[in-house]
Specification:
Elements: E1 8-18, E2 24-34, E3 40-45, E4 55-60, H1 61-67, E5 77-84, E6 87-96, E7 99-106, H2 107-120, H3 132-144
Antiparallel strand pairs: 1-2, 1-7, 2-3, 3-4, 5-6, 6-7
């Protein structure tokens, strides 16, 4: 019996950090999807220069997909359609005890990324790709750290 390796999709992109005065600053980031974690997407922010640590946010793939057409999410992660002078975008608002950040993400980048994830795990079929035993093992291992 042949086994297949889990598929991971990673897309490097540039997001724009939106300041309170609506000035923007380009930020290097990656969008990541792992078939072994079929309900989640990950945004990894990469530091400029040497020595900085990447910062990763994980949230629901469905939250991201819904945010392409209407406001989605409450609390720490919110996503909604956003128009800019640079074209159609998606707003990604992240909130933590350390502060808040608003990012502008090109809509076409997110649309293509989500389309690729649906090619690996179709929308609504996530439960067929979830290895509950492996997920539980990962959670317990993280708890012990």
């Amino acid at each position: 019996m042949a086994t297949t390796q889990p598929v991971t999709i990673e897309v490097d992109t540039s997001m724009r950090l939106v300041a309170p005065d609506f000035a923007t600053l380009a930020v290097r980031a990656s969008l990541r999807y792992d078939q072994r974690d079929p309900y989640a997407v990950h945004v990894v922010f990469h530091p400029d220069g040497e020595g900085g640590e990447s910062i990763s946010w994980s949230f629901s793939r469905e939250l991201l997909a819904t945010g392409l057409t209407e406001p989605s999410g409450i609390g720490d992660v919110r996503v909604w359609p956003w128009s800019t002078p640079r074209g159609e975008a998606i707003a990604l608002a992240l909130s933590s005890p350390d502060g808040n950040a608003l990012f502008e993400v090109p809509r076409n980048v997110l649309t293509r990324f989500l389309r690729r994830t649906y090619g690996v795990v179709p929308r609504g079929r996530e439960s067929e790709h979830l290895d509950v035993d492996a997920a539980l093992t990962r959670l317990l291992a993280e708890r012990e750290r």
